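Colleagues,

For the teaching module next term, I've prepared a clean inverse folding example: a structure given as tokens, and then the sequence designed for it. I'd like students to try predicting residues themselves before seeing the answer, so please don't circulate the second half yet.
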């Protein structure tokens, strides 16, 4: 608790840095108000990048329309925020005392907003045990002993593989390497992952799985551990595959995902949200999904909580929508909208979705072992730490230094940053 003022100051500096480039969202709540026992008539705004997704946006809007039709007190309206700057724009609005009433945040922005006292605490409003919230992802939504959100979506990372090229999924890392080598022939590659500075955020997502999968972590929650043996072991496994020439080197994610859809890549590690995109890119593609075959059953996840803006005039109305969304019937509908992602509570997949994607239960089994792609204890500084780590890792890939030296340098730079 005593570290909160410093964390708040650092987080607020992040918000100030993007303020000049963000556009203020018109028509949203602009001042706080006391919560009441039941929602008063109100129109509230909900900002979610999902609403701009051509595949999933219409389904989410339909769910919102269903809520609006279910009662006459609260009306939820989507807030229009440009996707490329979604998180930065909303953070800037909230830092200025404005912004949407409800927000679906990704974890880096959630961490910044929570550390900056921009979110409404939900401690006495959400009973996790009574609602049967899935504990794995839910534990990350408590900051300094206070709950600031509930899971809206959790997309687990797994191994996607082309069953025509690879009939059986590899079960161990050695099998993974051998399968990648055996599948690489001519213009077909066994594997693909990001490995360029231009895709810094994507490289971070990829190496996250290697670090966790080999028993490492970027911190112990209080101190950075970038140069710990297990972190280095995971990154050396990543480099070994790069050196094995089993990936299309230089290809960005958009390119190698097209290659996967066209049968030119055998495997890639991606999150559950990619299932729908893969099927849409090539409906005839014979692919499946399995756990990443690394030593530890631990992998990255794209965790996105829904939160209430501390500046909202209508906090009780916002809470009413969240509680409606957490009801079993709505959870099933939301999961159907989101596709292969999991939601806040355990749900049963519909027969239709299982017929379409028989591997969905395998993704759901990974929910409790997923880790959001932030540096534990250093959420607001994750983007800066990420830049340091990725720069040093890529220098190692290019033969400029070994991985141990790379991470020792990253550790020193990151320690200076957070100090």
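(Answer key — instructors only)
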């Amino acid at each position: 608790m005593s570290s909160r003022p410093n964390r708040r100051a650092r987080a607020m500096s992040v918000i100030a840095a993007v303020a000049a480039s963000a556009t203020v969202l018109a028509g949203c709540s602009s001042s706080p108000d006391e919560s009441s026992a039941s929602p008063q008539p109100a129109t509230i705004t909900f900002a979610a990048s999902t609403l701009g997704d051509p595949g999933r946006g219409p389904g989410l809007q339909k769910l919102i329309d269903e809520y609006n039709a279910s009662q006459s007190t609260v009306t939820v309206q989507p807030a229009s925020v440009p996707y490329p700057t979604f998180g930065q724009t909303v953070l800037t609005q909230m830092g200025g005392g404005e912004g949407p009433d409800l927000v679906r945040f990704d974890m880096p922005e959630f961490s910044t907003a929570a550390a900056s006292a921009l979110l409404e605490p939900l401690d006495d409003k959400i009973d996790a045990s009574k609602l049967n919230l899935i504990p794995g992802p839910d534990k990350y939504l408590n900051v300094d002993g206070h709950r600031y959100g509930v899971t809206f979506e959790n997309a687990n990372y797994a191994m996607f593989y082309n069953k025509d090229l690879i009939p059986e999924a590899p079960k161990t890392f050695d099998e993974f390497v051998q399968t990648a080598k055996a599948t690489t022939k001519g213009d077909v590659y066994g594997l693909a992952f990001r490995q360029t500075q231009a895709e810094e955020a994507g490289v971070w997502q990829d190496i996250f799985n290697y670090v966790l999968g080999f028993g490492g972590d970027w911190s112990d929650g209080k101190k950075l551990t970038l140069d710990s043996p297990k972190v280095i072991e995971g990154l050396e496994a990543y480099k070994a595959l790069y050196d094995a020439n089993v990936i299309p080197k230089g290809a960005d994610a958009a390119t190698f995902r097209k290659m996967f859809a066209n049968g030119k890549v055998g495997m890639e590690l991606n999150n559950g949200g990619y299932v729908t995109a893969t099927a849409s890119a090539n409906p005839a593609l014979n692919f499946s999904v399995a756990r990443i075959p690394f030593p530890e059953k631990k992998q990255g996840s794209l965790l996105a909580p829904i939160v209430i803006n501390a500046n909202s005039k209508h906090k009780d109305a916002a809470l009413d929508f969240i509680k409606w969304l957490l009801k079993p019937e709505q959870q099933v509908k939301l999961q159907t909208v989101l596709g292969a992602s999991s939601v806040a509570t355990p749900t049963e997949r519909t027969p239709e979705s299982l017929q379409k994607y028989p591997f969905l239960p395998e993704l759901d089994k990974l929910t409790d072992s997923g880790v959001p792609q932030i540096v534990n204890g250093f959420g607001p500084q994750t983007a800066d730490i990420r830049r340091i780590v990725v720069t040093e890792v890529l220098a190692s890939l290019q033969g400029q230094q070994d991985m141990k030296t790379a991470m020792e340098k990253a550790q020193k730079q990151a320690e200076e940053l957070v100090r």
